[in-house]
Amino acid sequence: MNKNELRKKILNKRKELSNEDVLSLSNKIIDLLTDTAFYKNANYIMTYIDFRNEVKTERLIKKSLEIGKKIIIPISLTKSKELLLSELRDYDNELTIGTYGILEPKKEFIREVSAEILDLIIVPGVVFDKRGYRIGYGGGYYDRFLLNIDKSVPKVALAFDFQVVEKIDEEKHDIPVDYIITEKGVIKN
């Protein structure tokens, strides 16, 4: 199965999940994440905001803000296919529907930060293999972004167990994540 077929198959499977299943599985995944040393030691956490039945990140974001961690949200710049990083301080009041239908900070709440401050990156994706390689949505935003990230910064994927396959044919520009967290546990790559 090629990347596009695999992406489509897993997206369809994810779409079939009920809201209850997404929430219940997401809560298990977030609990496993917040129990890790790399989460506990992180001060600046970059995370995606979920959409279309991705692992839900709202609880992670709110909990992190409550305990004093800084949350950094990516904004997709469609012309340059780059990610602009912005600090989020209030999940309920600072977001609006943005590029690709994903929640992004409203213009007045964009607080641009440098990727150099990050000490944990939560990476979205559709399919992951057991070595940490991923298939995203096809825009290449994260592949380009991760090229310039210090290798010591943990890159973590949150995924439902069915999103993890044995092996994906990686390309030379692909950068694997260091950990995949599913409802069944933490996979270290």
From TrEMBL:
One of its GO terms (biological process) is tetrahydrofolate interconversion. It is an enzyme of class 6 (ligase). One of its GO terms (molecular function) is ATP binding. Keywords: ATP-binding, Ligase, Magnesium, Metal-binding, Nucleotide-binding. ATP binds at residues 3-7, 134-142. Its EC number is 6.3.3.2. Its cofactor is Mg(2+). It catalyses: (6S)-5-formyl-5,6,7,8-tetrahydrofolate + ATP = (6R)-5,10-methenyltetrahydrofolate + ADP + phosphate. It comes from the Bacteria. Coiled coil: none annotated. Substrate binds at residues 49, 54. InterPro entries: FTHF_cligase (IPR002698), FTHF_cligase-like_sf (IPR024185), NagB/RpiA_transferase-like (IPR037171). Belongs to the 5-formyltetrahydrofolate cyclo-ligase family. PANTHER family: 5-FORMYLTETRAHYDROFOLATE CYCLO-LIGASE, ATPASE INHIBITOR/5-FORMYLTETRAHYDROFOLATE CYCLO-LIGASE. This is 5-formyltetrahydrofolate cyclo-ligase. It comes from Caloranaerobacter azorensis.
